[in-house]
Amino acid sequence: MNRTAFFFFSFIIIFGCKKNPGILVPAPTITAISPSSGVAGALVTITGKNFSTTALDNTVRFNGTSATVKSASATTLVVTAPSGGSTGLISVSTAGGNASGPIFTYQATPIPTITSITPDSGSAGTIVTISGSNFKTTVAGNTVKFNGVAASVQTATATALTVLAPGGSSSGAITVTTSDGAATGPVFTYTSDVYVVGKGTGGWGYWKNGSFTAMPSNCVEAWSIYVDGSDVYIAGADMNTGGPAYWKNGATIDLPMTAGHNGGRAHSVFVNGTDVYVAGWDFVNGANALPRCWKNGVPITVSLSSGNISAGQPVVSGVIYKVIVSGTDVYLAGSQAPFSGNQVATYWKNGTPSPLTDGTAVSEAYGIFVSGSDVYVAANDGTTSKYWKNGVASVLNTPGNFSAYPTGIYVSGTDVYVSGYYRDVAKYWKNGTMVDLTATASNPIANEAATGITGLGSDIYICGNDNSAGYGYWKNGTFTTLSGASILNGIFVK
To answer: Is residue 484 within 8 Å of residue 201, measured between CB atoms?
Structure first.
């Protein structure tokens, strides 16, 4: 072998058998991002080359904050703009190296906006459509208020909400609040429907905004009214049975009486959800009345106090003038009495009586109201009538030695309103201070009375009569006459 051949053969042995040190991975590059701005959570497409085709092998950062890679190819990455990120360069790191790309600009999360409401007026329970943008698409994600009072959201899209105008509110701006911010919209104007129950030239019935609807001829007394949606409930007495009854949209529902009793009155009605509560009394031949309450036509237990509460005698009778329901609790107001002796003003919670007076003078509770956990009761009490808050009495002040006669009670915020009369002149009391409703001079033959009270938002409604204007109702002190009215017993506003 010549020398040249030997050298070539040796080169092959030495260098031809050396192992391949490996393939070099090229570094990534970024050529563009789209979009170049957006909110946290926005999807951003990064275009370039030499990305890993495995999503987890690409580390992407927005100004230093790690982002989640949703999909990957050699030339495209789709990532989510991370929460907590800030405006700055986007970077991509792979096994081949690092690349910095264009700046991604963070935008503020879009807050909701309100462009219109339809309708812009109505009563409580009206369905209102709120149009705008950036609403949450879940009902729970949107908080809607009418002049500060929370409303029930029925449906939700990014551009429209439907809500129920809440009861207890008043005219004012609508607001929508989401986790991204709040928007204030147009004013919603509450238009009240005023219902008053009593007797007119057409018999017993009720007025809705001044228009009279007569009850069937078997209704011989109508004491209370409650309106639920389009359903009108009236409590009173049925001429055919002589006993307690109520009417739903004019249809009679007679209420069962205590065994052996042959008469009575339904004096109050209250609707809670799908349940109808009616309260009053039944009796034997006009005597020995027993307090009664019915739920959906079925009697519920109403007990008399045990022991002697008036004139040292045991209680044997009672009546109920008012029923209200708060949550699952049923509250009643009325009185109890021995066979001979004075009535004792009493309220009941779930059928258990709580006497408020001691029987020294005739006393009956005509009104009851529950606000939160506080129970308010109004009652005449001899020569010093009062209202009680959680059993603590406050006097209804009068300018002389004559007694106030309360007929109902309503609470708005921290203010307590009591309707009634003083020396046969219609009055009301606000936090115990007497307020004139009419210009009638106090005298024993005036024959005026404020017979019922309710409220809606900051508005106070009282029914009764004014000697100079007739029978009707006051809204915040302004009187509206109801044509043909001769007796008014109760008022309801929605």
So the answer is: yes
Q: With CA atoms as reference, report the closest residue to 378 among 410, 351, 354.
A: 410
Mapped onto helix, strand or coil, the DSSP state of residue 432 is coil
> Does some domain include residue 234?
yes
Could you tell me if 263 and 283 are in contact, meaning their C-beta atoms sit under 8 angstroms apart?
Answer: yes
Residue 82: asked if its preceding bond is cis (omega within 30°), the reply is no
Phi, psi of 53 (to 5 degrees): -80, -5
Q: Is residue 158 part of a domain?
A: yes
The answer to whether 229 and 241 have CB atoms below 8 angstroms apart is no
Cβ-contact 438, 427 below 8 angstroms: no
State the first-to-last Cα distance of the chain, in angstroms, to the nearest integer: 119
CATH of the domain at 319: 2.130.10.150
Q: Does residue 263 share a domain with residue 180? A: no
Residue 373 in tokens: 């956990």
Residue range of the domain that includes 144: 113-187
Same domain, 217 and 266: yes
Whether 270 and 326 have beta carbons less than 8 Å apart is answered as: no
pLDDT the model gives residue 23? 67
Q: Following CA atoms 75, 81, 82, 87 in sequence, which dihedral angle do they give, to the nearest 10 degrees?
A: 110
pTM of the model: 0.70
Contacts of 323 (CB under 8 A, 6+ apart): 268, 269, 270, 277, 278, 279, 293, 330, 331, 332
Instruction: Answer whether 296's CB lies under 8 Å from 276's CB.
Output: yes
For 114-163, the pLDDT digits (tens) are 999 999 998 888 899 999 999 999 999 999 999 999 999 999 999 999 99
248: left (phi over 0), alpha (psi -120 to 50) or beta: beta
Report whether 165 contacts 125 (CB < 8 A).
yes
Mark the ranges of the chain whose per-residue pLDDT is less than 70: 1-23, 383, 443-445
Tokens 């309106």 correspond to 227
Residue with tokens 């002049």: 147
Instruction: Please enumerate in sequence order all residues whose Cβ is within 8 A of that of 117, keeping only pairs 6 or more positions apart, or say none.
Output: 128, 129, 130, 131, 174, 185, 186, 188
Residues 96 and 245 in one domain: no
C-alpha distances in angstroms, 174 versus 138, 139, 158, 452?
19, 16, 17, 31
**Residue 381: its pLDDT value, please?**
82
pLDDT of amino acid 403: 84
217: tokens are 């001829």
Quick check: is 20 in a domain? no
Which two three-digit tokens encode residue 467? 């000697």
